[in-house]
Amino acid sequence: MEKKKSHYNLSLIKKLIRLKQYRITITASDNAEQYFGLRGNDVIEEILNLETNNFYKSMTSHNNHKIWQDVYHKPIESKIAYIKLQIIDEKTVVIQFKEK
Length: 100
What we know:
Elements: E1 2-3, H1 10-18, E2 22-24, H2 26-36, H3 40-48, E3 55-60, E4 68-76, E5 79-88, E6 91-99
Parallel strand pairs: 2-6
Antiparallel strand pairs: 1-3, 3-4, 4-5, 5-6
């Protein structure tokens, strides 16, 4: 399922990150480095710089249709990042960070 309205409040996503309540999947970390040369804190800074107009869509997880994931498109240098986020157990999870 998809919808054009964010499922999670971007301010809450950022607040949890600032409170160190986040995790980055290995896939997201590896892709951020491969496509953009970003590591750890660089990835987090890019997410903290997201704006509501970077929102693209919300979609349910492929594995569980009850879990929503918000997708953002963000310009980074000459590329567009595809960033997929969700909140689970009061933590922001960076699921994907790859080139669109």
